Amino acid sequence: MRDLLPEETRIRDYLTHEIAAIYRRWGFQRIETPALERIEFLTAGQGGENEKLIFKVLKRGEKLDLAAAAGEDDLVDAGLRFDLTVPLTRFVASHGSELPMPFKALQIGSVWRAERPQRGRFRQFTQCDIDIIGLEAPFAEVELIMATSECLTALGLRDFTVKVNDRRLLAALAASCGFSADQQGAVFIALDKFDKVGLDGVKADLTGFDERAVGRLLDILSQSGQARSVGEFARNAGINAGIETPGSTVAELEEIIGRTALPPESGARVVFDPLLIRGMGYYTGAVFEVWHKDYPFSMAGGGRYDKMIGRWLGREVPACGFSIGFERLVTELAQKGIAGAAAPRRIAMLFEDGGVFAAQERARGLRTGDTVVSVLPRAKRMGHQLEELRKQGYSEAWLVGNDGARQLSFEQKAQ
Amino acid sequence: MRDLLPEETRIRDYLTHEIAAIYRRWGFQRIETPALERIEFLTAGQGGENEKLIFKVLKRGEKLDLAAAAGEDDLVDAGLRFDLTVPLTRFVASHGSELPMPFKALQIGSVWRAERPQRGRFRQFTQCDIDIIGLEAPFAEVELIMATSECLTALGLRDFTVKVNDRRLLAALAASCGFSADQQGAVFIALDKFDKVGLDGVKADLTGFDERAVGRLLDILSQSGQARSVGEFARNAGINAGIETPGSTVAELEEIIGRTALPPESGARVVFDPLLIRGMGYYTGAVFEVWHKDYPFSMAGGGRYDKMIGRWLGREVPACGFSIGFERLVTELAQKGIAGAAAPRRIAMLFEDGGVFAAQERARGLRTGDTVVSVLPRAKRMGHQLEELRKQGYSEAWLVGNDGARQLSFEQKAQ
After folding, report:
1. Alpha carbon distance A100, B388 (integer Å)
2. What residues does B296 pair with on adjacent strands?
3. What are the backbone angles phi and psi of residue B163, rounded to the nearest 5°?
4. A99 and B2 in contact by Cβ < 8 A?
5. Which chain B positions have a beta carbon within 8 Å of A342's beta carbon?
6. B9 inside 8 A of chain A by CB
7. B2, B3, B136: which to substitute to probe chain A, counting the most A Cβ within 10 Å?
8. Cα distance from A291 to chain B (closest Cα, Å)?
9. Distance between B330 CA and the closest CA of chain A, angstroms
10. Which of A326, A413, B76, B230 could be joined to B253 by an S-S link, Cβ 3.0–4.6 Å?
11. What does the pLDDT read at residue B189?
12. Hey, is B382 helix, strand or coil?
């Protein structure tokens, strides 16, 4: 886990604030769930592979009986959340009657995963999610994509691509190729690696499945770039015609692609990508990701998960979400620089002898807007101190002593 | 642990943002440390009673050997932080060379304590701390009190009292009454309860100690209100005259009291309180708390802890901090209402039939500044929906259908 130093924290705070301001204007309302959830809830099967990475919290007091403990499960009763979606489903199930419906939720918060430390991966990291609960396709999908695209555009991202697909279309495709329903999970997992391993890699991964089905699937996918619409892709793939009726999966996807209005200055577009899978098992409809040619990873991702909240309520609740890859965005934008996140004007008010209170008084009047005024003791080597202040981003300095104040020049270092 | 719903989160976000903006203008820079720290570090004795309340995290993988575990200590390797001060000392020891000195740190973040749940106490709560590292008394003390008072004033608190005392003065007082150095901790703990139990309660708590020493201590404290200055109190108490020389504890305290300029509109004042103790063992000099006659608890508290960072570095580093009682402030201010945190203008853009994309287009142009525009499907019972929207704070609504848009009246409920 890492500490965040002042400059990085400043950029993160700026991004958080900008993103929240935009989403708020769209009607998303920020909520917070606790970092700790009951362990039974976190390990109920919604989190996929992430459930293996939970930091588990030891029982306390009388509840902890080490002698009687047969295994890990007897020792723990809580865990740190590994994402913001699983806690949201509990939140909505618990507080549904207090929430407007549809409910547009914004969450920005830390999640924890006990992953092997590696470059660019952290065991505590920030997620930034919006979700719309209680709104059917394609309305929620269109709004999530529009709002998130506005955020990314405001942060300076240009010419990005929003890829969309649908889990039901994938299921129909797998079925039409001859895979049984219980083989679909494995097929999706293999397809999900396409970006990294290519068609040959996917083929190798599907060894053991019916060869004709695999061959047919890979044929369709390798030719998918030629389809001019989702409907044409479905027809070429021989997918059951029912999927093309109004209100169908194909019609929904076409509506998402055709009707999502992205900010004109973004240069962005929404496209159909039959190879887009997304890892989590909980998706039930549309899935989407934001990609940019300069980056080998997605900038945002999400989809529809209509059955998840229902697990706690016993009735299905429409739900769809979109998550910005906050950590990646911070890294990229911090390297490029963000116009709006420019450092503030910094003034150093150095005091010597009895000047500290006069320095505080002088500083008071200058602290307006973004201007930072820091009162600091004059160092013995003031030239060196000024050089350090200049490096820290100070553009103005004063020396306040018994005889009053005088402005210092950053050029005139020697004293 | 609790979920935070939209309205509470909005007020918390407003407070966080306002407090951070003010502290930033004073030159405080926000940093973040991880939620999890190594367990040996958290239990090294700096956290006092809080160390008993740590949520401990189970070891993972091969490190966890249940069969060989003799006790709790063998099972855990990390814990959730119980405050922001102890992690800050590690942060400064780790990153000192990358930080400006003096370093003015701002931390706003969650801490966790496994307390018995009770009204107004939470197991996860937010702390809001500023600390100045590398600056001697009384400069850091004065700045911390001034900056925090500006925050509290900006949030609407008036006529509050900043009480100050000094651990060295308390030690000298205990010594002059006849207590030995190793009795001081117990004496301070007893005195700390004075607010709740009165002088008689303190006396009962000090049963077993030398009766003359106890009598003398209580005499001095019961008459302390008559002293017109720290120096007079010290003389009356027969405290060693050395403490009154320039640069001494008495001189420092008098300077903090006399020189701290509070915002004129605050109606606040700084006073000496020889009964102010503060619980933590790590304080080495001045301690201070903010009180208001309407509240039976302090709104903020802090003090100097010069020996804590030194534990990790092997050399003493001056350090002084002030923490705003964020949760209490939220509760109080949410009840009173905060002028600046007024709810935004909310517009509902309802769509029916094919109007959703026209509604999104219309909404786009209206989303400026703080204005919230939420695109929502028209409910079957639109009058009921408008009533719900009004309750949620919407002041304007439009209906967008195939034939264009028309404004709806919140009065004209029936449809």
Report:
1. 8
2. none
3. -90, 135
4. no
5. none
6. yes
7. B3
8. 24
9. 15
10. B230
11. 86
12. helix
- What is the phi/psi pair of residue B58, to 5°? -65, 140
Measured between alpha carbons, how far is residue B300 from residues A142, B83, B148, B166, B382 in Å? Answer: 46, 14, 8, 16, 48
Tell how far CA A71 is from the center of its chain. Answer: 34
pLDDT tens for each residue of B167-209: 999 999 999 999 999 998 889 888 888 878 888 899 999 999 9
- Note the Cα A215 to chain centre separation in Å: 35
pLDDT tens sequence across B285-344: 999 999 999 888 899 999 999 999 988 888 889 999 999 999 988 887 777 776 667 788
Contacting residues for A272 by C-beta, under 8 A, at least 6 apart:
A163, A164, A165, A227, A229, A230, A233, A253, A257
Identify the helix (H) or strand (E) that includes residue A165: strand A161-166
Compute CA distances B126 → A20, B1, B330, whole Å. 19, 12, 10
**Residues of chain B with C-beta less than 8 angstroms from the C-beta of A91:** 3
For A189-246, write each residue's pLDDT tens digit. 888 888 788 888 999 999 999 999 999 999 998 888 778 899 999 988 888 767 777 7
pLDDT at res. A321? 98
Chain B, nearest residue to A9 by Cα: B31
The whole-angstrom separation of Cα A311 and Cα B199 is 58
Rounded to a whole number, what is the distance in Å from the CA of B282 to chain A's nearest CA?
A: 23
Q: How does A330-353 read in b/e, with b if 16+ C-beta sit within 10 Å?
A: bebbbeeebeebeeeebbbbbbee
Which pLDDT belongs to residue B241?
66
CA–centroid distance for B193 within its chain = 21
Q: Report yes or no: A159 at the B interface, CB cutoff 8 Å.
A: no
Residue B25 has its nearest CB partner, among A27, A64, A367, at A367
- Per-residue pLDDT tens for A75-96? 999 999 999 999 999 999 999 8
Q: How far is B26 from chain A (nearest CA, A)?
A: 5
* Whole-model pTM over 0.90: yes
- A102 at interface of B, judged by CB pairs closer than 8 A: yes
Q: Please give the residue of chain B at the shortest CA–CA distance from A125.
A: B34
Q: Measured between CB atoms, which of A3, A259, A392 is closest to B100?
A: A392
- For B286, other C-beta atoms within 10 Å of its C-beta total 27
Which residues of chain B are under the pLDDT cut of 50? 414-415
B80 touches chain A (CB under 8 A): yes
Nearest to A3 among B78, B94, B146 (CB): B94
Buried residues in A202-223 as b, exposed as e (16+ CB within 10 A): bbebbeebeeebbebbbebbee
Q: Tell me, what's the pLDDT at B335?
A: 75
Q: What's the CA gap between B333 and B326, in Å, rounded? A: 10
Nearest residue of B to residue A104 by CA position? Answer: B374
Per-residue DSSP letter, B26:
T
Q: How close does chain A come to B68, measured CA to CA in Å?
A: 11
Residue B146's closest chain A neighbor by CA? A360
Say yes or no for a CB contact (<8 Å) between A30 and B24.
Answer: no
CA of A281, closest CA in chain B: separation in Å? 25
Identify all chain A residues contacting B24, using CB atoms and an 8 Å cutoff: 344, 372
Asked if B56 and A56 come within 8 Å (Cβ–Cβ), the reply is: no
What per-residue string of b and e applies to B107-122 under the rule 16 or more CB within 10 Å gives b? bbbbbbbbeeeeeeeb
Question: Minimal CA–CA distance to B400: which of B353, B368, B364?
Answer: B353
Residues B6, A34: C-beta atoms closer than 8 Å? no
ipTM summary value: 0.93
Helix, strand or coil for residue A377?
strand
Look at residue A241 in the predicted model and tell me its pLDDT: 66
Residue A361 near chain B (CB below 8 Å): yes
Burial of A185 (0-12, 13-18, 19+ CB in 10 A): exposed
